[in-house]
Amino acid sequence: MTTSPTAPEVTTAPLLSAQGLYVTFPGRHGGPRARAVDGVDLDIRPGEIVALVGESGCGKTTLARGLLGLVEPTAGRVTFDGRPLDYSGRSLKAYRKRVQLVLQDPSGSLNPRHTVYDAVAEGLRIHGYGGDERTAVAEALSRAGLRPPERFFLRYPHELSGGQRQRVVIAGALVLEPELLVADEPVASLDASVRGEILALLLRLRTDLGLSALVVTHDLGLAWNIADRVAVMYLGRIVETGAVEQVLTAPRHPYTQALLSVLPEAPGAPVILTGEPPDPSRVPSGCRFHARCQILASGEAEAAGVADACRGQDLEVLGGSGESQVACHWATSLRGAGNRATSHNAPAPGLRGD
Ligand SMILES: Nc1ncnc2c1ncn2[C@@H]1O[C@H](COP(=O)(O)OP(=O)(O)O)[C@@H](O)[C@H]1O
Ligand SMILES: [Mg+2]
């Protein structure tokens, strides 16, 4: 998985990159604007699979939509293949052929009245494909693991299993031969066994086609099984990023530690986060996590001499590259004092492959 021979070197230029990205939405009832994405740098290199993880409402889907050009950023920019996105109709259409969105089927990606053939051919028709449509559809279905493809052409979504429907959605993305997939919670509603199959499919597409992917998930176990790199998002920002093994076995940010501590495999007591659930229209000053931080609450931040900074000093936006980084006054102070990254609440080694 992360040791795959196709996993890219960190020095490769990014294929897709967000730089200083902000997306805000009008506040409810004239209140303050919601800062859904609040300063994000994120690179995805050719052939790389990056998992974007975080609780519901932290801005994952908005960031994904920003990367796809489906929402125009309030500030910052998105570049693809070295060029900034152009939000005019025609160039956006060309971009959306190269970067495909994969939603989960229960969100209504498939029209119940369209056959599998039409569902997969739709993208070809939108983009005025000049080649042989039937061959392209058959090949995409086959790549997505629906074989022999002809057997599926005239089926309707309700005649298929959940896993097969998700494969049709993936075939619809593959038929345009994209370079990158953005998969927003691709397996959230599937049974565990089917989940594994779909994840294996995504990994095989990377190996066979060199596809890159951003996989958005609230499930850290899924990130562990598929990603080279993970970015942990909290209230609009990436608060920790690095190689998946590093972040998930030696998490440095108290938020990442808390997320991992509630997994069934985790040793020790789960960390129950206190304080208000995060609200993007009221981002706290200082560290945005401080009001819920178990390290600040326990006095450990005070002991490390950083408690005032936690409450009053914002953190820098983390760089988008693959290196290990954390936005936390306390974690940075530990490293500065020559301590190793903490490993409390690290998951048991058996987590991978569950
Ligand atoms: N179109 C929109 N208009 C107003 N607020 C939005 C819109 N889309 C998302 N939000 C708000 O932005 C925040 C992040 O949402 P989202 O990106 O969907 O998070 P996630 O995918 O992590 O659950 C939430 O507070 C959500 O209510
Ligand atoms: Mg979402």
UniProtKB/TrEMBL annotation:
Domain ABC transporter: 16-260
InterPro entries: AAA+_ATPase (IPR003593), ABC_transp_ATP-bind (IPR050319), ABC_transporter-like_ATP-bd (IPR003439), ABC_transporter-like_CS (IPR017871), Oligopep_ABC_C (IPR013563), P-loop_NTPase (IPR027417)
PROSITE patterns tied to this protein: ABC_TRANSPORTER_1, ABC_TRANSPORTER_2
SUPFAM superfamilies named among the record's database cross-references: P-loop containing nucleoside triphosphate hydrolases
A Pfam family this chain is assigned to: oligo_HPY
Taxonomic superkingdom: Bacteria
GO function terms (MF aspect): ATP binding; ATP hydrolysis activity
A biological process from GO: transmembrane transport
Name the UniProt record assigns to this protein: Peptide/nickel transport system ATP-binding protein
